[in-house]
């Protein structure tokens, strides 16, 4: 597969070289039709990386090529081949979705009928057909964000940069946007995504780079990062210690690693589907839990394990 981004030890120090380090040294590669997520809390360096790779700022160290062109020496060629979707929508509130897309298409040089055709294709692809003729000012946050991505896809870019696409969206709007982004990837677009949510990186990205205070602290698939923390677990909560005590030998038959935690009323097992069904079977008619929960490693846990401090502390430090 062709690499559309190749970055080697790029970095940026703000000010006159004695200021805040936005990014120390980041190396990455992104291939066509793949999604790479830069994951980290506020101040981790995600936006600095995206702005540098999309030529909005100059890295002061390292080299990067995007769509085959050097970001420092050939920024114009890079810009012609990429699109960037930021956190605030660039669309006109007074116009309808279709009018906005036609406008963007005309600005990109499409003639009137080609612009209309592309606008209609994009409203279809981004689930905006019904809303296409309504003014954007009445749109929900999720619809706006989808329209913003659609506008950036008028001419298919080699790479789409999306900076925290779902911050502030509710779960349903988030899923709709993920679906839209996946459809672009299926068409061969490469996406470089920044996010604060492990779940988002998990759902969209083939590869994740975890950033902390300007450093890349880990890289790999979501499963790989989570495995560094430990497997997801099922927790069975019991009414009292006596119930938990009766349950533990039964649950250890299901999963020998079943353990009673410090509260003495919660038992933890590996999260495998058969463990859940077998637990219910062995406990039935003897002692039932008051609650069953599934606990997956969160970004905070991954972060804590890999950096030794939580995301909150990282944000405070960078504030
Ligand atoms: N223009 C600037 N001048 C000085 N320092 C900056 C500037 N932009 C960013 N920084 C600093 O660089 C570091 C990385 O910031 P960056 O915006 O890249 O992080 P981020 O991971 O994108 O955070 P967020 O999720 O808040 O956008 C932070 O410590 C920040 O204070």
Automatic annotation (TrEMBL):
GO biological process terms, semicolon-separated: response to antibiotic
PROSITE patterns listed in its UniProt record: ABC_TRANSPORTER_1, ABC_TRANSPORTER_2
Membrane topology field: Peripheral membrane protein
GO terms for cellular component: plasma membrane
Domain ABC transporter: start-end pairs: 5-238
Compartment(s): Cell membrane
One GO MF term attached to the UniProt entry: ATP hydrolysis activity
Signal peptide: none
Listed InterPro entries: AAA+_ATPase, ABC_transporter-like_ATP-bd, ABC_transporter-like_CS, ABC_transporter_ATP-binding, P-loop_NTPase
Record keywords: Antibiotic resistance, ATP-binding, Nucleotide-binding, Transport
Protein known as: ABC-2 type transport system ATP-binding protein
